[in-house]
Amino acid sequence: MTIANESRQAVSVIGLGLMGFTIARLLLGAGYAVTVWNRTRAKAEPLIAEGAILAPSAAAAVSASPITLICVYDYKATNAILETDEVAAALAGRILVQLTTGSPQEAREAEAWAHQHGAGYLDGAIQVAPDQMAQPDTTILLSGAQTALGQSEPILRVLGGNLTYLGEKIGAASAMDMATLSYLYGAILGFFHGALICEAEGFDVGAYGAIIARVAPGFGEFLKHEGTVIQTGDYAVSQSPLRISTEATIRILQAARESRLNTDFPALVSGVFQKATAAGYGDEELAAAIKVLRQSA
Amino acid sequence: MRETGESEGEVSVIGLGEMGAALAQTLLGGGRRVVVWNRTSAKADPLVRAGAVLAPDAAAAVRASSLVIVCVTDYEATRTILEAEGVASALSGRTLIQLTTGTPQDARNGGAWAQTRGVEYLDGAILAAPSQVGRPDTPIFVSGSEAAFRQSEPILRILAGNLQYRGEAVGAASAWDLAFLSYGFGGIMGFYHGARIMESENIPVDTFGSMMAAISPVIGEFARYEGEAIQTGEFGSPESSLEITWKGMEMIRRHAKEARINAVFPAFAADFFKEGVTAGYGNERPSALIKVLRQSA
After folding, report:
1. Among B36, B93, B137, B169, which one is most buried in terms of CB atoms within 10 A?
2. What pTM does this model have?
């Protein structure tokens, strides 16, 4: 295998799916000596044409650089690639940056394995699609040892301007990633039900989306307030009490029945809020509903 | 108590719960002559001290002004008041603004009632807490008679700087309100589960809240994008597919089990998205799920 030009800093990228490919290309563009490896070679060809070095094995890719980024489909794939004797032997003194999506538990296990073999380890969660990488506001959530972060930071900065370090606990990036998705998917499910309401009334759903986009930032400020309420545990009412929201969720459910819409979503939401009211939280701040969710289902 | 005569007030407010009282107070503050009535008169005392005239009964309140605002607990309470002796006949030729919260069907029933009695009718939804009434950004949606809207606009603007007329279809204001609430409650459900993820990983929830405030505009843009897809029916070539959405939700469900936290929301959402994938829309945009939702009423 040819060794990269000594004056350029070396970095390895394992996994050349859409995101891995984008990462490798951005690092090449930033002047790094990039070594790549992928299960199927064909994906590497365009990168080789741009100057990347194709490693013959994952272990060779890890050996080629002080820092290796890995971004594959899931932890099953990442473990199949990394957890071999060859890779384990190559890891000592190097840093592994895991950009594969997984759970906090998976991150903890992977970090323990990496540390066991003398490697530094960072877990990262990229918050954007491949075509939105390398923008000043491209967010990458990171957690893991601060020393590993310090050494990887220049490389990560090439990938996204908004690096958000969440601390040494390795599970934090993945937890924050999932929590963000949870909010996104909840909002979007609510949006879909709103779209059903609009369709039933003959409104333009595109116009509905445009109005939601306008109010979304203000809604975010409200959630920030809710987060503070939950963190401090002070549920004294500052705006409107939970029971008003319970009534509103019942109204959404009632209207869905009247218009013969799918009632699954409003029934779920209303069920949670009615439980909260029944539990005696009606005159507390809306966020008191989380007390219901703290009980196991 | 003075007798309430014809044209005593510019506007009458019936119902002095928290919201009704806030409306009357704000109108007084705006320099309007306000006549009030409430089932129990004690609630009127602070308003009378502030210059409101207390009517002896609902019919007298109606007779006193050409514009009558009703804001009570629900439409049943409204009906009881409007069908009390002398009220309907007194309303004939006047404008009734219904600010009681209800469903679009409630509003349509109210509109039909008003029409047969020669009453100009507007149905409104206040998207704010009582303490927020009267601000430049307070949103009130109204729909119904355009003539009635033009006549009452100056009064309504005192109550809500962000006054939006949603057209002659009288159910529209309520439907828009519910569509907004639906987005909000979806976001809240997802946010709360996100907060539970944070708690299970010992990450401060207020940190999460701040980060969600920061990305809320992006989620709003996402909703707009999906809204356009629903409106145009073009669900192809997604940046992120329904299948990816489902996989993400399954990961959140798995985490909930691993971390032993309440899985009601992720289980619901994962099954919901899965339905869309099973129906063959996995490679389309997440909003393709609406095709399933439309059928499963």
Report:
1. B36
2. 0.90
